[in-house]
């Protein structure tokens, strides 16, 4: 069988004439043509794949040449030397922090010494103010004797209390505060001092003062202040507490807590220890509440005009239920107490004394947990709270009845404070 292909030419029309022709191609010719085309294509494709393989090989060689080679002896020594340098820089940084804290402490001690000398001079030269001066300090100053050596401790915890709060104090003793010999051991072995803080009544030596003296004879857990008790005098009481505590103990931290708040002493000590390297710290649950200008409301601020327009908020400060300050800040308050302005609200007063200083404000929310179930859930999750209270009551609501239950469900355990790493 043949395929006939005709090509018509122009002009006249004979079958054999020069103007046209017919080409006859057999199926064998077509097959040969196809095979030839396939061979040419195969040759071309094989050449392209060979070029791609060569390019991939070259790329892999380039990548392998860029891989880091294991260090030789000199390189290993250089790396070790660099590591040593980093370690030395880290140690130097720690030393600088320690020196900064030491220098800061020395500066405060110098200021304290100068202030004490000035006070002694005033004491000896001014007879009109003799009745307001501590008799012990006056006697030492007159005799030229050095002040009593202060006991070195880690922290002083002052529990603010009142004459009418005997049941609250007993509930604290029966829950989170050690008693008797354990209280003394805690002070001697761990450097943790815990005291109820109270002044005296308007009638010195009256029935209220005698009741506190009898209670202290039984428990030996009071720090008495040269201060007349009164709710509107909390700012003054706070100032005198820090000055008195600084004069009696040389502590890293000074803590103030209310007598209707539950505290885990071990967690408190551990939390403060994390900030020991800082020269000046102010730790608590920081807040910025509204400045209340309406008379008769709780927390009314008579000097509200100092804080700007109506509706403004206070500067950041720690809530008054519990807070802590480092040694230098407590000494600063003790030295400058005569110049520090007192606002009606004690926590605002402390914040105002500190806000203009170079101080680290630490907002630690573990110091303001709620009562169960809040603090209980956190304890079960491994986040034991430092302190627990009810915001609605500014302390534990009905604390005399409930603080033992809070301690049972949210307490850290009796051994925690003894195992705290300070």
UniProtKB/TrEMBL annotation:
Keyword Manganese in annotation: yes
InterPro entries documented for this protein: DUF4094, Glyco_trans_31
Entry cofactors: Mn(2+)
Membrane topology type: Single-pass type II membrane protein
Highest taxon of source: Eukaryota
Pathway: Protein modification; protein glycosylation
Pfam family, one: Galactosyl_T
EC id: 2.4.1.-
Record keywords, A-Z: Glycosyltransferase, Golgi apparatus, Manganese, Membrane, Signal-anchor, Transferase, Transmembrane, Transmembrane helix
Keyword Manganese belongs to the record: yes
Domain DUF4094: 26-116
Subcellular location: Golgi apparatus membrane
Protein family membership: Belongs to the glycosyltransferase 31 family.
Protein name: Hexosyltransferase
Protein source organism: Sphagnum jensenii
